[in-house]
Design brief:
Elements: H1 2-24, E1 39-44, E2 48-62, E3 65-69, E4 74-79, E5 88-89, E6 94-98, H2 101-136, H3 142-174, E7 177-179, E8 184-189, E9 196-197, E10 202-208, E11 211-219, H4 223-226, E12 241-248, E13 251-262, E14 272-280, E15 291-308, E16 317-321, E17 327-331, E18 333-338, E19 341-346, E20 353-355, E21 369-372
Parallel strand pairs: 1-21
Antiparallel strand pairs: 1-20, 2-11, 2-15, 3-10, 4-6, 4-9, 5-8, 6-7, 8-10, 11-14, 12-13, 12-15, 13-14, 15-19, 16-17, 16-20, 18-19
Length: 378
């Protein structure tokens, strides 16, 4: 009996315990959780005038570049230390000198010919002045006078030719010394002492350092932001500004210049329009061949709202947060994208708040907690 009653008592006790626990269990009441509005970043927009800009890049080239050309035959007697690749010089500096022996002999010969022509002219004039009065006395014939006058005219022409020959010989003597035409730098040279050169020989390439130029390619549609036309030229007072920058000498350098003109045709390969920028007397020096970035100043646009590019949604829409902190999608009219910003010319009013947060799902009328850029959540 003991074996039978013990398990039965245990089972009954378990049922009674379970019933007691159920009877004394706390009652759960159903509660609806309060919805939590998501926090979003917003910015308050204010239309303002904006100076439109266009970015471009290009390589520095000299405004003035010329060949140093020998104008007389001769042997090189002296070469300046500045006449080397990369050498600098100032205007009027002697760069090269040829032997003067032949040119001095030519000058002496021209002067002798001129002196002879002067003597012949003096004799011809004396003869003419002697014969002319005799014609009035009928002591000589008219043909004799005409012959004397002809000799006088020939002598005068001979003197003019002699003087021209002397001037030419003097000029050739001066040209035995080649001088720098401007302040500049030697780009390349191909001459040395003892070398014989002919008239017209190209011995060096020089370029001026008073101004440097950069050809800047831009897409043709960007001309609308600049307000330029093909082939347009600008006076120094009206020329739009440009800021050039490049890493050089271990630091970021900047140079300010002006847009002088737009070239009058599209590049056949790139389909780009080229603007020509000039920097006068660059400081620091603007090295030839340096690759620079350019920011070109364009025309002004009024009542423009600038937003981060990420604020624009598909279909040219932005998310507006109204006064009741509810979301609304608003179509806008973009003027252009510039770097990380978008410039909007219509669709938003002054003082409206635009959502900047990257919301995955946007429901019209959804309540949010706006967080002003740099401020606290409302």
């Amino acid at each position: 009996m003991k074996r039978v009653l013990t398990p039965a008592l245990i089972i009954v006790a378990a049922f009674l315990g379970a019933a007691g626990l159920i009877a004394t269990a706390p009652t759960l009441s159903a509660e609806t959780p309060e919805a939590v509005a998501p926090t979003v970043r917003v910015t308050t927009v204010h239309p303002a005038p904006v100076r439109l800009k266009v970015r471009s890049q290009g390589s520095v080239a000299p405004r003035t570049e010329s060949a140093l050309v020998v104008e007389v035959d001769g042997r090189v007697e002296w070469v300046s230390d500045a006449l080397v690749s990369g050498g600098t010089f100032t205007a009027g500096t002697p760069l090269l000198r040829l032997e003067e022996t032949d040119t001095r002999l030519a000058l002496a010969g021209a002067e002798a010919s001129r002196d002879q022509a002067r003597a012949e002219l003096a004799n011809a004039r004396f003869e003419y002045d002697r014969i002319k009065p005799l014609l009035d006395k009928r002591l000589v014939s008219r043909s004799a006078l005409e012959s004397a006058e002809r000799r006088l005219r020939i002598a005068e022409a001979g003197l003019r030719a002699g003087e021209s020959a002397v001037a030419r010989a003097q000029r050739d003597l001066e040209r035995t010394t080649l001088r720098a035409p401007y302040d500049g730098i030697v780009r390349q040279e191909s001459i040395d002492v003892g070398q014989f050169v002919r008239r017209g020989s190209d011995v060096a390439r020089l370029y001026a350092t008073d101004a440097m130029e950069v050809r800047l390619p831009i897409a043709d549609e960007q001309l609308a932001f600049l307000g330029f036309e093909l082939g347009e030229r600008f006076t120094p007072e009206q020329a739009p500004g440009v800021l050039l920058s490049a890493h050089f000498g271990g630091a970021l350098q900047h140079w300010r210049g002006r847009i002088l003109r737009t070239e009058g045709e599209l590049d056949a390969r790139s389909r780009m329009v080229h603007l020509v920028a000039r920097v006068e007397n660059p400081d620091p020096a603007l090295p030839l061949g340096l690759f620079v970035s350019a920011t070109i100043e364009g025309k002004s646009a009024e009542n423009i709202i600038t937003l981060p590019r990420a604020a624009l949604r598909e279909g040219n829409r932005v998310i507006v947060v109204d006064q009741e902190n509810r979301l609304a999608l608003r179509p806008v009219t973009p003027l252009r994208f510039f770097e990380d910003d978008i410039l909007i010319e219509a669709g938003l009013a002054d003082g409206e708040r635009v959502c900047l947060s990257p919301l995955q799902t946007v429901v019209e009328g959804m309540t949010v907690r706006p967080l002003e850029q740099g401020g606290a959540a409302e």
